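Below is how a single chain appears once it has passed through the pipeline. First comes the sequence as given, then the structure the pipeline wrote out for it. We keep one example in the README because the format questions we get most often are answered faster by looking than by reading.
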Amino acid sequence: MLVYTLLILFAGELQALAARVQVTWDVGYLNISRDGLSTWQAIGANGKLPIPPIYVTQGDVLELTAINHLDKPVTLHTHGLFQRNSTYYDGAGMVTECGIPPGSQFTYIIETRDQSGTYWIHSHYGMEGIDGLRAALVIRDQDPQLLDEYDEDVLLTLEDWAQAPLNSMVDMLKITPLVNLIPNHPSVLINGINANLSQPIRFTPGRRYRLRVVSMSFTYWFKVRLPGHTMQVIEADGISSRPSAADGLDLGPGQRYSAIITAHESLEYNYALNVTFYSDFIPRIPGLTPRYHKVPIVYHDDAPVKTFPLIEDHEVKWADELAMEPRDEQMLLEPVDQRIVRNIKVLNKEMALPIHAFGDYAYDPVPVPPLLTALTTGNMALSPSVYAPQLNAIILKHNHIVELELRNPDPLIVHTYHSHGHAFQVVESGPVNKSSSVPVKQFKRRQPMRRDTITLPAGQYVRLRIKADNPGVWFQHCHQEQHNYSGLAFMFIEAPDVMQRTLRVPQEVVNFCRVLGHPTHGNSAGRIGSDMTGIKPPLKILGLTDSISGS
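Resulting structure:
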């Protein structure tokens, strides 16, 4: 349901016309076969899957109302939106809220005046997102120079679709030895339908198309190429970039790109957009992983499809954030006030789904969402002692420059890291083991590209920077849902002193916690100081040493 109401927004002497876009999702179960292979109880909105994309224009206010018809809480996270001054609308379950109880509804207010580009929305409670509750969000740009660079928008959403609800599968994987694992590979959905039935994209000679590619995946990666055409990449994760030539896009779970493709002048041939579905950490099985799909690119209905010789992936020039530059020319953030090193650690590697940690402890939710702890514990909110160890909470001071180094020492497993509340500068990547032949790569010039989701390759580290200028509690986690579920997460408690002065949490958020039986003030256990009585002990995982230095 869409309702548009015009508002007049004033900024100094400037008067701008913006829209208040109201969208309602009646969230409920539906038995459906999205891939034509298996039918199971998925989660959709308004009785539908796929959920239609949402389009707004920069400056609009999106009011997204979720009505919960499930038998469990639900949340909605707008992936990539900073939610500046409104961390309570971030939708991270048991981090910024307890969730919307069954039979209740809640409206998320999403401001877009400072952001444009390509995003998506998904549940951030349990496995509801991968079970269907996800949709693309496009915030149209207002920059006349950028709008002049293309003629038409084309949206391409990519999804992995399991053969059963993931909750049941994940619980089974935790107790299944790896040697006994019978692979259950998901299907591929392109624009919401079975990838083998992909609808054609029509090209008109000479027109310039902005191809917006959204990986709404929770486990697998996608590669996208259009042989015979050159891509000019102009966006990564909502951050506009100077045009950068590439032959293809390689997207991990949660990542997005925009690329301008100029159609040929001739109608002689049609083409095929190649979509590869893969995961480097899963053994290659012909026909299952990797899997190859084609989206028809039609110039003329009667034209033949032009074929090209096969080339190896290493011969392809893939889009690379370290080689890109932001359009706004933001300089490298310096000097660094705080340096944080976090290593990925693993327990029970012999199981199909081991336990993971970003730091010393596997992440596990606690009775009081850390946002409410940060807002109700006064000066103690600046002390790590009020946050249970299993939150892996890191306190950031307001406006400090923070450098985060994430290390993945595992020689086989690849991860994707997603930051709520920020787009980080991508500064460097390289091998964890310094004797490795993997090269160290650094950003070009003095304007590193920013994004909110990045691949953390096996055996490598990435070095990122942010400015802590967005007071709030921000979840940081692996976007492979099974790894997030098994503990691979931490969080920033950003400027809690400023939060206490400036944030006013909607009363509904507090009331919902009470309805669901959660305390709404005090430390993680709902107690005073560092008394964590009543919380199950944190699970500590040994591994490489983590560190925090600076103030």
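The longest strand covers residues 14-32.

See the next section for the split statistics.
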